[in-house]
């Protein structure tokens, strides 16, 4: 199974409401977290942060340890590839108005419950819900 790395961007909106940012897939248009292949010379967490910048125009503090993982079937020119995606939490500190893939994807902040329901993967939805519960319980970080 192939390995990818992804970022789960989060923030506290309106003083107390946790939100996560999702992006659309370039081809599918489905809501997903920013993700991509490992990058030479970068840790998986740093590669996930780079993907979040390229796909969503965001930056912040990324957790070095993954929150968890989920499986995804990635379509390619050669068929379908099974991929495990390690998910790293990204506390968003900056949103850009211009970024590399701005014209190719949409980005949107979702309340946690809605985000968990709009992603295709049940496992990813569970990771999102788990982060939301931690944030609602007054933790200063999503870990």
TrEMBL record:
A Pfam family reported for this protein in Swiss-Prot or TrEMBL: NUDIX
Entry keyword annotation includes Hydrolase: yes
Domain Nudix hydrolase: 1-137
Gene3D superfamilies with a match to the protein in the record: Nucleoside Triphosphate Pyrophosphohydrolase (3.90.79.10)
Entry cofactors: Mg(2+)
Domain of life from the UniProt record: Bacteria
Annotated PROSITE patterns: NUDIX (PS51462)
GO MF entries: hydrolase activity
Keywords: Hydrolase, Magnesium, Metal-binding
Protein name (Swiss-Prot/TrEMBL): NUDIX hydrolase
């Amino acid at each position: 199974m192939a390995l990818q790395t992804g970022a789960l961007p989060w923030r506290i909106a309106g003083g107390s409401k946790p939100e996560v940012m999702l992006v659309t897939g370039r081809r599918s248009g489905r809501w997903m977290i920013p993700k991509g292949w490992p990058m030479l010379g970068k840790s998986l967490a740093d590669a996930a942060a780079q993907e979040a910048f390229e796909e969503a125009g965001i930056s912040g503090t990324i957790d070095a340890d993954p929150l968890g993982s989920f499986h995804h079937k990635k379509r390619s020119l050669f068929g379908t590839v099974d991929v495990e995606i390690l998910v790293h939490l990204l506390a968003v500190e900056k949103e850009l108005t211009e970024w590399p893939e701005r014209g190719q994807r949409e980005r949107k902040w979702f309340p946690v419950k809605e985000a968990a329901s709009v992603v295709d993967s049940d496992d990813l939805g569970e990771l999102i819900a788990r982060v939301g519960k931690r944030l609602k319980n007054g933790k200063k970080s999503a870990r």
